[in-house]
Amino acid sequence: MRLAAAGLGLLLALSACAAQVHGPAAPVAAGDAIRLTARPVPLDPTSPGRDRIGHFTYAGGLDITSPDTSRLHGLSDLKVWPDGRLLSESDEGDVFEARLALDAAGRPARLTEGRLYPLVGEDGRPLPALGKDEADAEGIAELADGDRLVSLERDDRILLYPANGGRPRKVPSPPETYPFNLGMEALAADPDAGPDAYVVGGEASGRTWTCRLSGACVEGVTVAKAPEAGLSALAVLPAGRRAYLLRSFSPLAGVRVTLRIAEADGRTVDELALGAPLTVDNYEGLAALPRADGSVRFYLISDDNFSRLQRTLLVAFDWHPVS
Question: What is the pTM of this model?
Answer without folding.
Answer: 0.91
